[in-house]
Amino acid sequence: MNEEAGATIQDAGTAPARPRTAREGTAERLQRLPTRLLSLAALRSDRLVTEALARVDARKWHYAVLATLEQFGAASQAQLSDRTRIYSSDLVSVLNELADGGFVERGPDPADRRRNVVSLTAAGKRRLRKLDRVVAAVQDDVFGPLDATQRGQLARLLTVLVDSEGA
Questions:
Q1: Which CATH architecture group holds 59-141?
Q2: pTM, rounded to two decimals
């Protein structure tokens, strides 16, 4: 395979060369679809966050629960499910994993002893700080091509889209 003037030239009988950018080799109408571009960017960022958190034995849901507990304080499982958008059936295993690590505690709700609340431990606060650093590094990787102004614009635009779904 030879390269001249930035174009890939194939030798006869070789497999097609893989494009160097996500847009090369893609139909123009697909390149112009914002929904497709958003999906491709989301897939990449989700993969990078998942991989980075896995390297420190964590998951996105761990991060979501710890961050929510830090901001809002102790909460019932139903409240955590609503705030994090994690299905309550999935939240049970997430909370079990976090409790096994000593990052959260379950205990009776002082206002209603029939109900349990989940609270963040000191170890959970330390864990959240570590996960904050991991996620921040991924943000820099994903959004590296954008300057600070563009990152802010993108965040505002994505917030409009997310808020418009009414969820």
A1: Orthogonal Bundle (1.10)
A2: 0.78
